[in-house]
Amino acid sequence: MRCGELAERLDERLRIDEYADVDASANGLQVGPADREVARVAVTVDAAVSTVEQAVDAQADLLIAHHGISWGGIDRVTGTAYRRLAPLMENGLALYAAHLPLDGHQTLGNAAGLADLLELTDTEPFGELGAVHVGQRGTAPDAYSVDALRNLLAGELVHGGEGVQVLEFGPTEIKDIAIVTGSGVDWLEDAAENGVDAFITGEGKQKAYHLAKEHGIHVFLAGHYATETFGVKALQDRLEEWGLKTTFIHEPTGL
Fold first, then answer.
1. In the structure, what pLDDT confidence band is assigned to residue 161 with cuts at 50, 70 and 90?
2. 203 annotated binding-site participant
3. Is the pTM of this model over 0.90?
4. Domains and CATH numbers, the chain
């Protein structure tokens, strides 16, 4: 499959254009010629020197990353930009990025994958950002205790040894759960005002403690990287259905 054709198919499936006005990431094909033939695709969370080099070693033609290398443009190809671009261009490796579209997609996205892990039902979009959403909300068929939910997240997600931090201010039983993966704590107050029992995100900010305490809601900080592997893995499954060979490049940050 040609790189341009694959990129267009991904753009359509992930509704890339709908996020153009709210996402700093230059989503879509960031590096590489559209006429390049693609047989093997590597997927990863972060496009960095190490993951690019691993994609080259895996003989990938295209690397798909949740966090790409262009965030509002590249003014100078020096320093970090050069170190990341050089191995891509020297080895003819194309790069495709899907940031917020891969957070908020209601079947392929990071939040959707985490909701599936928790076996949530009656799921619906959550985390409004302009005209789109970046998360998901749902109901646990059987209520979780704080310890049970913490242990499930700690056992199933890769944290690099850091575990799951909990701001424990909500009810004894947890049924209504909202999720915005990665750096999603800015939607904590929305979750509280919508009456959820617990909010799950990747990493916290200082303000989260007092907001959680004042609103009476649990906050689970399950790791930025750990909560954002679901989307690229879901894309990996789709790519294999489309007849492409794939490789998942796993480099947990512990953050």
1. low
2. no
3. yes
4. 3-98 (3.40.1390.30), 103-227 (3.40.1390.30)
